[in-house]
Amino acid sequence: MQTGRGPPVCPSTKCRRGSYCIEGSVITVKQNRKSRLTIAGFFIVLAGLLYSCGGGGGGYGGGGGTPPTSTVQVVACPVGGTTDISIISSTAAGFSPGSVTVPVNTTVKWTNAGGMQHTVTSTTVPVNGTFNQTVNPGVSVCLKFTSAGTFNYQCSLHPVMTGLVTVQ
Ligand SMILES: [Cu+2]
Q1: Domain extent listing, the chain
Q2: Domain spanning 72-167, CATH architecture
Q3: Whole-angstrom Cα distance, residue 72 to residue 139?
Q4: Mode of pairing for the β-strands spanning 140-145 and 132-135
Q5: Cα separation of 58 and 97, whole Å?
Q6: Which of 19, 22, 27, 43 could make an SS bond with 9 (beta carbons 3.0 to 4.6 A apart)?
Q7: What is the pTM of this model?
Q8: Ligand 1 center to residue 161 CA distance, Å?
Q9: How far is ligand 1, taken at its centre, from the CA of residue 138, in Å?
Q10: CA 145 to ligand 1 centroid distance, Å
Q11: What is the pLDDT of residues 83-101, one digit of tens each?
């Protein structure tokens, strides 16, 4: 295996016979060309490899790994046990409270207490921590945060509305 040299090679079981793979050709190039060319060539080959392998599965065939699991999951709102945020206006104070700090595996519940549609849309968040939920008037949405981190969000319809969920 070429671990440590970059993204892992596509497993041969996922590459159809006849499609090119990294191993032989790139090693040869690496010995004969300067490193910059090798790197460029590597990514060109890698792109082709990902493309050729992507049709069979979920698009992660090139790495041979599993798809990333989101650390923020949309869940049906439970009865009780949630940290509650009201959406009260389309101003900067629209999310109330605008900042909450919760333990890992907390479900946060946003309830639209106004008459306008809003969203709860992540902005700056950890990898695999994105979310984007529409919240219609009178409706609640719930997100379960299963990993620690700092999750910034806004209403995509009224970007002045911002909020923060800190999970620790
Ligand atoms: Cu809004």
Answers
A1: 1-66, 72-167
A2: Sandwich (2.60)
A3: 19
A4: unpaired
A5: 38
A6: 22
A7: 0.62
A8: 6
A9: 13
A10: 22
A11: 999 999 999 999 999 999 9
